[in-house]
Amino acid sequence: MDLVEIVPTAEPPVCRIIEYQKFLYDKKKKEKEMKAKQGKQVVKEIRFGPNTDEHDFNFKVKHAITFLDEGNKVKAYVHFKGRSIAYKEKGEIILLKFAQALEEYGKVELMPKLEGNRMFLHLAPLANKKKK
Q1: What is the dihedral of CA 29, 31, 37, 42, to 10 degrees?
Q2: 3-state secondary structure string across 55-92
Q3: Domains along the sequence of the chain with CATH
């Protein structure tokens, strides 16, 4: 049996007389259980082209709504191929329109940003929405 300090920050500190190895085992078991209960954040990707049509856009918005309702994050991006990189403003317009269409389902974490030949937009689900 050992004298183990349980809560060192309390005034006065809390101690118990227990088996130290058993205490460590129980502590490790509780930490593992807590880690298993945590929800994992999933990031779903949606890809657009600079010339994405209205119907395709609406179809992808519906998918993004289901992703956000499930509690997943959404990473939307416009992929520029070849010379289409000259139409950066088209890609930015598409992503801003996408963010505006989803404003009641999620909030923008990262505004449109060009990296290489892709322009990204990150959305997170709203905290007050109920998860299914």
Answers
A1: -130
A2: HHHHHHHHHHHHHHHCCCEEEEEEECCHHHHHHHHHHH
A3: 2-37 (no CATH), 43-125 (3.30.110.10)
Tokens describing residue 121: 């937009």
108, burial (CB in 10 Å: exposed 0-12, middle 13-18, buried 19+): middle
Structure tokens at 23: 């205490």
Do the beta carbons of residue 76 and residue 61 sit within 8 Å? no
Please tell me the pTM assigned to this model.
Answer: 0.65
One-letter identity of residue 63:
H
Indicate if the pLDDT at residue 130 is higher than 70.
no
Under the banding of pLDDT at 50, 70 and 90, the label for residue 129 is: low
DSSP 42: -
Rounded distance between C-alpha atoms, residue 57 and residue 59, angstroms: 5
Model confidence at 65, pLDDT cuts 50, 70, 90, reads very high
Model confidence band, residue 116 (pLDDT cutoffs 50, 70, 90): confident
